[in-house]
Fold this protein.
Amino acid sequence: MLKVQNLRKSFGPFLAVSDANLTVAQGEIVAVIGPNGAGKTTLFKLITGQLKPDQGQVVFKGQDIAGLSPHRVCRRGLSLSYQVVSVFPRMSVFENVRVAVLARRRQVLRLFTPAVRLAGKETWEILSNVGLADKADVISGTLSHGDSKVLEMAIALGNRPELLIMDEPTAGMSPEETRATMGLIQRLSGDMGITILFCEHDMELVFNLAQRIMVMRQGETIAQGTCDEVRCDENVQQAYLGGHGDA
Amino acid sequence: MHQQKLLGSRSLILVALLLAALALFPAMVSRYYIYLVALMMVTGLLATSLNMVLGFGGMYQFNHAVFYGVGAYAAALLTVRGGVNPWWGYLLGPVVAAALSLLMGLICVRLSKLYFGMLQISLGSLVWAVVFRWYSFTGGDDGMHGVPVPPLISSIDGAYYFVLIVTVVCLAVMYLIVNSPFGRVFESIRDNPERAEAIGVNVRLHQLIGLVIAGFFGGVAGTLFVTVEGSVFPDMLFWTLSLEVIIMCLLGGWFTFLGPMLGGGMVVALRAVVGIYTDYWTMVLGIILMLLIFFLPQGVLGFFLARLGRGRTAGEGD
């Protein structure tokens, strides 16, 4: 479904991603791991169009989408849930998700239909699914950190993505919130059939959820395979134990 | 479940009462007050049109008076120089303003926030300079006086009712737009343009359409000014007025729909009162702005709505 080949991106003299390779098959849950600064967030931004790669290919459903603008990437069925909470802070939780649903339905340029008549049902379904229904009227800027991260995901789900990319979905969450989020990710994959690509520092979460893992170090893919393969990989052991072991 | 209506029944009653009061108003007061209230409505409409992009789109439009002036000049020039029926002038004035807004938008919309505003100011000043200098066509710094107004609305009462009706219709249309999917998504762009783009919104296109809408209604306000005053002058396009319109939005409450209307009315009324005692109107305006920033950052209407516990964005989740 997604195939990333030899992707490269530099910021001035700093090579953030030098050679990233990744494949994600339909229905899979794939994790990207690696020490801080390995280029995971940059990789995700390159895939979703927030950044333009210097080199390499991003093939999604058979088409090269590298360098497309974010709204075009999104319309092809690929959504990103951000690491740093990035919601619409002055709007209610409900409206946050509704605009995503409206965007997916291509209804954003309607000028004279009241928005309250559109997308309400679908928005409720998403909010109930992620467990935010009771906070629908809360202004999103005032949510707790954990709830904001869940709203992040809810907005991404509003686009009804085929591939959902999550950048550290549980960063900063309490253990209970982390557990709930894990359950949610499993439901998204199992019940709704969404393909999931995520990165995370919590190794327990990674090995519990992911079917396959890609490991990055200093902008480079050093291994990709099943959990067991990755665990036994020499390069990976060296990356984590030899000098860069901050995860 | 949540409400599915645009206006609650209480708001509807309030609006109806206010309209009735405004309709009966000319029968009770002198010519001067009729003129003043008409001007308040025109100015309020101007501020509301700016707020479409300022408060609801988060775009720092620093040259909004240009569209006000161009709407007015287009109507006046079409009538005086083009010799067309004044009604056509009224129809085409806003269209010309919207077209200019589209043109400027195409140039500016790639830039973000402050750079957008700076370029808007320079392009706006360019238009002002043309109007100010082109004596043979626009009358230069004298402006144009005695612009013909259709007989039906040439009396002060007629002008007042015309302004009232057009203002109410424009407000209703803008209210619809603000509450449409377009408006909701525009607000999301204001809050977080990067994320809006990431959920599949063509942000530039959205902003461009917003600018055209704001320019159009700014132009409508300009043509209404011609109705009330029967004249146009280059100060209508000058950047100081643009700034004053921004202050009106902030004063009334730029995250509320009716705030700018209130702010516009307040500024016009204050100027009328202050003008009796002093010539230093800009100083008074400066003091108002300072007090506003320190004590009422949400604006007057924003403050009261927050007190009532139902700010627009807060109360209307459904």
